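writing this on my phone so excuse typos. first protein, seq and then structure
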Amino acid sequence: MATSTAQKVIVHDDENTTAPCEAGLQLREEWRTVLEHAAGCLACRTPGAVCSEGGRLLRTYEEAVRQTRSGGSA
């Protein structure tokens, strides 16, 4: 079995380090909400089924990702 030796490097500058960290935490929390909903929702786990709540949660997460990548506040 091969093992990975890649390491994650996090670089912080002295200015404005709080906002990116908070944005990342917010994105993780929103993604966790999407996953938790999908795990417990029969419609989300059924191929071809539609779940309005799951769709809404996913759109909210996607919008937060777009805002974060564009430098806006999520």
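second protein below, same order as before
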Amino acid sequence: MDLDELEKDTILLHIDENERMSDLAILSLRIALKSYFTTYSSIKYRIGALKFNSEGVNLFTYNYYEEYSKVIVYLHHFFELIIKEYLRNEDELLVIDFVRDPLILHKLIKKQEISPEEYNKIFTIEFSKSLRMLVDLVKSKSIYSDGRIDFLIERKNVDALIKLNNFRNRIVHRGSFILKYKSLDIFIGKYLLPIIKKILELNEGEKLGNVWKYKNNFLGIDVIDEIINVFEEVDYNMDKVAYLKEIGRASYENPLNSSFKIFDDQVIRRTTEMLNYEEQSQNVSKIIKCPVCGQRTLTIYEDEELNIDEEGQMIEHFRYTYEAKCYCCTFEVNHHLANPRECDLDITDLWYGEDIV
């Protein structure tokens, strides 16, 4: 099979008549959210240093670079497809840049069916042009005069999407710029998630929740709503957002809540066997219920520290917890974060210490 034959061996995806999001748009959103939630775990052992504003490049990891790139590129792809979808709902021609073949152009004008091979010869407008076109058409009430997407053309939202396009171009065309951890949190949580939430509500996103959304967690909270709420406060609580992101990441990984109870039972049995072995470890403090999967699988680890003076005399000897890890859904945090209750989260305190006599 040569390259031309490969190009023809494609599947044409489409949007149904109910104006729901295209398959690739919703999948791009899923990938972007999973990567955003993973940015905490990609840097969790260096999160303590970030609290002191020491955000030198050496504090970041290749895993963070990877997740950051996926967040920006796939969110950009999601918004581009959504914007073009809004334009296509009026007319396919609004998203066309140019068509060399007059027969294909005629088909478009007459709204006749286009084959996959013909689609390959159609070039659509790029992100910034489609955004400008949507803003102009909606603002003039030429399309969507009922006001249902007016939120998308608000100045702050347009500015956020322009910045997203800039960040994407820096990755794709220059490959040398990334946002630091805190700035990424603010950009996503304060500026983009509120737009995404409204788009999902408008485009019946909840009906596609099985495609893009994380599973329900034991706490009964919606991670996106909670992150948005954090940024409605005056001060950005980095620790709380980190917990919420880890809950979101682990919710995607949670093997429970499958369609078949027998699979859940198998997972629980294997996890229990693993924990029975792990519980014998000397550095296990206790095992509690996980805030994500709800199983008694969240293992809290402890360590001891002994300080001795110059004369070899013991100054202090204390025990402390330093890590919590779920062996079922993979939820994992460490003591560089404040205790959950300090972040207004209904999770048992994980970090504590005591002197050893």
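The beta strands are 96-99, 122-124, 284-288, 298-308, 314-326, 332-334, 353-355. thats all i got for now
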